[in-house]
Design goal:
The chain has about 180 residues and is of the alpha+beta class. Helix content is about 45%, strand content about 15%. The chain has a four-stranded antiparallel sheet.
Length: about 180
């Protein structure tokens, strides 16, 4: 009996030591892009198109709400036109009140900068490009994506109320690009 207790203690100590050592392994370094390189083509140069209409915007929000209900995630949803102006909004019962403005902000950023807000999050988190936070109307948090139709931006959707990953999933579902 004492041998079993001793063996269990030794095994437990070994597992703990191994997990502590594994947890302390440094992440592989990520090389930031060289900001002095002049690209041949303009990044995120998607032209603006005819702004999204209210019917399409509300339909997208209904798709996002359906997905959020399936997952049990109360969220806020904002759709803006290609100029960043609010077209449709919905707040699910129980969604965080602070996330109302955040959903709108994510949508505006995605439309105005013609890129998902995740691009800003990655630039700040992975590369330390904190200067991006000084640009007007930038939000460096996932959950805002441009809406592209026929190769042109017609608006953007912003979702907020959960984690960035949850917000992004709902935006993708709303845009019909959830894979």
């Amino acid at each position: 009996m004492k041998l079993r207790v001793l063996m269990a203690a030794v095994l437990a100590a070994g597992v703990i030591a191994t997990s502590v050592a594994y947890a302390q392994q440094p992440a592989a370094p990520v090389t930031p892009p060289d900001l002095n390189v002049v690209p041949d083509k303009m990044p995120f140069n998607i032209p603006y198109g005819t702004p999204i209409g209210v019917d399409k915007a509300q339909s997208m929000i209904q798709g996002a709400i359906a997905e959020a209900n399936k997952r049990g995630w109360p969220e806020n949803f904002a759709v803006v036109d290609s100029g960043g102006n609010l077209v449709a909004f919905a707040r699910m019962d129980g969604a965080a009140l602070a996330s109302i403005a955040i959903a709108e902000h994510k949508a505006r950023t995605a439309a105005k900068y013609r890129r998902p807000t995740r691009a800003f999050e990655d630039a700040v988190q992975k590369f330390g490009f904190n200067y991006l936070l000084t640009l007007d109307d930038v939000i460096a948090s996932r959950g805002g994506i441009p809406l592209v139709e026929d190769g042109k931006i017609i608006g953007a959707i912003g979702c907020s109320g959960g984690t960035g990953a949850q917000d992004e999933v709902l935006c993708m579902a709303a845009a019909g690009t959830n894979k």
